[in-house]
Design goal:
The chain is of the alpha+beta class. It has helices at residues 2-5, 26-41, 48-62, 68-74, 116-119, 122-141, 145-159, 164-175, 199-206, and strands at 80-84, 92-95, 103-111, 180-183, 188-195, 214-218. Strand 4 (180-183) and strand 5 form a beta hairpin. It is globular.
């Protein structure tokens, strides 16, 4: 954006609640938020497509993510699917419809991971492409949260992205009553979808299964980028 619009140094401050580097999309949201803020600060009057393009480019060139920005920008739903890759103006998104007020997302976090160690690995990228289309087709044939998380868990294992420990925790979470659970892609964390009425009981059961790490619980929302 600086090379295109020629502005000087800018100090950027982010307030981010989820842990950074765990696969929760903080780099993509940070890039998109920065692009939106710069457009507003400098009076550039850029559209959502334009700021998303800058953010997507930053993600790809920095090797911090590949498809997060389009899902963040679309605001298409709390349980979104990127069905065609690319920036906001090129890719396509869909979403699984459900009453989000009935659910909570419980996340178990164990540490950050360097995304480039996975994204720059040719063998892993090949496996991601190989199994990605198959996984997406299976989810679209049965677009439910349990299918999404179950197929994602299998995808994480087949591509070699996941660790045995986090896959085991994902399976344990389902045994404890989660609708579905899988490792973050890409991050040393597990996210579990649970019924809101059972979330406190679920968290109490999950803690003994993970002596290390931390847990946080999040609501689901239908929202794209907004000004505060």
């Amino acid at each position: 954006m600086r090379s295109k619009f020629g502005f000087g140094p800018v100090k950027i401050s982010h307030v981010i609640e989820p842990p950074i580097g765990f696969g929760f999309g903080t780099s993509g949201s940070g890039a998109l938020g920065t692009a939106i803020a710069l457009s507003d600060l400098l009076g550039l009057h850029l559209s959502l497509t334009q700021v998303s393009s800058f953010a997507h480019t930053a993600e790809v060139e920095s090797v911090t993510g590949l498809g997060t920005v389009i899902s963040l920008a679309s605001g298409g739903g709390a349980v979104g699917l990127v069905t065609e890759p690319g920036s906001y103006s090129i890719g396509r998104v869909d979403s699984i419809l459900l009453d989000i007020t009935q659910y909570a997302l419980v996340c178990a976090c164990f540490g950050p991971i360097e995304k480039s160690s996975v994204l720059q690995n040719a063998e892993r990228r090949q496996k991601v492409n190989e199994f990605g289309k198959e996984t997406l087709e299976a989810i679209l044939n049965d677009p439910t949260p349990s299918t999404l998380l179950g197929r994602s868990r299998t995808f994480a294992e087949r591509t070699g992205i996941a660790s045995k420990e986090l896959l085991a925790l994902s399976d344990k979470a389902v045994e404890m009553g989660a609708i579905g659970a899988t490792q973050n892609m890409i991050g040393n964390a597990v996210h579990c979808l649970v019924e809101r009425s059972q979330s406190k009981t679920f968290v109490k059961s999950l803690r003994p299964a993970m002596p290390a790490g931390s847990i946080f619980v999040s609501d689901l929302i239908h929202s794209g980028p907004t000004f505060v």
